[in-house]
Amino acid sequence: MKLTAEAELSVPFQDCDPMQIVWHGNYFRYLEEGRQALLSKLDFGYNVMKAEGFAYPVIDTRMKYVSAARFQDKLRVIASLEEWENRLKISYRIIRISDGKTCIKAYTTHCAVGIEDGEMRFASPNCLLERVNKCLNQC
Fold first, then answer.
1. Is CATH 3.10.129.10 the right assignment for the domain spanning 3-138?
2. Shortest CA distance to 108 belongs to which of 85, 136, 79, 133?
3. N or C: which end of the chain has fewer CB within 10 A?
4. Is 52 exposed, middle or buried (0-12, 13-18, 19+ CB in 10 A)?
């Protein structure tokens, strides 16, 4: 079973280039909307991470541009948890709602870093593993 969550957004004017096409760097902000929805589903949002003593910076990412999104397009960001034992790997699809066409395929990889010592962890802490297991059993 794969954990997934979705977020929807409308492309604002300021995210577009002069041709009203989303500037490529803005898609990373859209991924963040999906990531926040997924982390909320796990009850492991950024405030909880911090309270548990961890940050999860992006250590690797990849994005494939399939079809351009444009000003005022309604988009659905689907985020799926692919890995969680040693790192977080989240895959994404950004879909234009009007026609169901995929605009973006992407992933981000995150590693736990202790807030107090700044050290990277090479295994996910129990506070995350417990939440993932709980969600896998209940969601």
1. yes
2. 79
3. N
4. middle
